[in-house]
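Hello again, I could really use a second opinion on something today. My current little project is about how a certain protein chain folds up. You're getting the sequence in one-letter code plus the fold written as tokens. Here's the protein in full, and shout if anything looks odd to you:
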Amino acid sequence: VKNVICKTAPQDQSTIKYNNMKMILDIIRDSREVSRSEIARMTGMSPTSATRIVGSLEECGLVRDMAAVSNGVGRKAVMLDVEANAFYCIGLDISETNLKLCILNFGGQIVARGAAPAPGDSFQPEEVVEIFYRMYQRLAAQAKIPMEKVAAIGAGAVGTVDSKTGEVIFGDLIRWSHVPIGQMIEARFGLPTYVDNDVKCAIIGDCSTPPIKGADDVVLLSFGCGVGGAVIHRGRLVRGSINSAGEIGHTIVDYTDGRLCSCGRRGCAAAYLTKDQIIQQAAKSCPGISSLEDIMTAWERREPWAEALLDRISTYMAITVSNAACFLNPRNMILGGKLMNESPFLFDLVLEKYSAMMYPPLRGATTFIRSPLGTDATCVGGAMIAVEKHVYKVMRSASE
């Protein structure tokens, strides 16, 4: 028994210290200007313990003292805030049409962002990595970001992703199968790299931003070049057995028509509700159509084919929303993705249809929100994953 205690006690103490550091850092990050005495009161710690843990965070370079503020009684309290530029992380968005990159500081501000077209039909992973690397070099130089302060990378990729290994197991839209993209990015950049599904990254990004910030029960439905979903329950991502939980785009919405999906099956929601599919359907009725803007213009002119198309598309979207609401019964649902972001009127149209078809007991149960970050959600969410992974490493090392 003594040997067991001797072996486990140091680890237990380390874990306790880490948990206390994390709790206090979270308070400082959420409050942004809070005193040591307020931290002691909020946590129930003694002032001495709270001060000691704040000192550890300051030694890690994550927290700094600000100006003293008078509370009207006694001496002024020194306020604390995070050291916003303690380090930086890169966020990547790997999609079939665009490659987006942002650089986020520890304070949560985007200090640089850029985008480039995806590399055509080839979409070779080596070429994708090189495009991102050149983009990063240019943006970091323009923003005068010290390279030694860039700590990690978080990437969101379309398809089924093994978040533990960083491998894209199957990405139908980018035609990747078993691509170790995380290892490839890490080797080129020389930085720890974490890869997840693009919509899972997007929900993390959106849930870091008002009005949904801090919500612990959220579903994101993303309508764009594909149809995807992600779920946060009790503050944690729901992943499923192979990290595919929320993959609502490959549920069947119309088997009678049987339109071919990029996954090889027929009747999936993604076969009807993507930007390219909608433009293709519009072009059958009006050959000159080449963009969503053309469709919207025709819809505003009340052209019959455009009204019929958008009626059908919004119905499929409402069915998808209804299925997710019935199955998951979330308190909050974000509607995002390129299609929704570029055609904002769809938000109201889809909710109008959903209201007419919803399961009656669910009326008023879910708050619907437009994606706060829009097209930046995936790369910001990827960067935030990298931030949290790096903070974990730093505090774990300090607590040992």
Residues 1-9 have pLDDT under 50 and may be disordered. The two ends are 23 Å apart (CA to CA). Residues 2-31 form the longest helix (30 residues).
